[in-house]
UniProtKB/TrEMBL annotation:
Annotated GO MF terms: transferase activity
Protein's organism: Pelagibacterium luteolum
Source taxon at top rank: Bacteria
Keyword terms of this UniProt record: Transferase
Ranges in a coiled coil: none
Pfam family, one: Arr-ms
Sequence ranges assigned to domain Rifampin ADP-ribosyltransferase in this UniProt record: 5-99
The protein, known as: Rifampin ADP-ribosylating transferase
Extent of the signal sequence: none
């Protein structure tokens, strides 16, 4: 079996559905909140780290975030933002879209734990 990829985002997708980029869905994007120089609205961001997808899902403003196990479709490229140092292995990629192959619902206690950790990291109470 090859690499597993995950995407943390809005709940509501089912197995077989596509994760599409914000340029198509018109959904709010990280690029809309100050990350426009490192985040493209025409790409779907996926990760090989389940915990990173959990963080994205837990922080989704809808409160209904999910972690989707996905298969990338189209060309896949390393997310330049995921490689901070020469020789570092990437953990995030960008692709045109991805198909959902499994869904992982977050538990309430995991969402609270993640929000507490992220809040502490940025000095805010979430």
């Amino acid at each position: 079996m090859g690499e597993r990829y995950y995407h943390g985002g809005f709940g509501g997708l089912r197995v077989g559905m596509y994760v599409l980029p914000p340029s198509i869905t018109k959904a709010a994007s990280t690029a809309d909140f100050g990350a426009g120089t490192v985040c493209r609205k025409d790409r779907v961001y996926i990760t090989s780290r389940f915990e990173n997808a959990m963080e994205a899902a837990a922080m989704h403003p809808s409160g209904r975030g999910r972690v989707y196990e996905v298969e990338p479709i189209g060309e896949i490229a390393v997310d330049p933002d995921s490689v901070m140092f020469p020789g570092q292995d990437p953990w995030s990629w960008e692709c045109e879209r991805a198909v959902v192959v499994a869904i992982h619902k977050l538990r309430g206690k995991d969402i609270k734990r993640i929000k507490k950790l992220v809040g502490a990291e940025f000095g805010v109470l979430l």
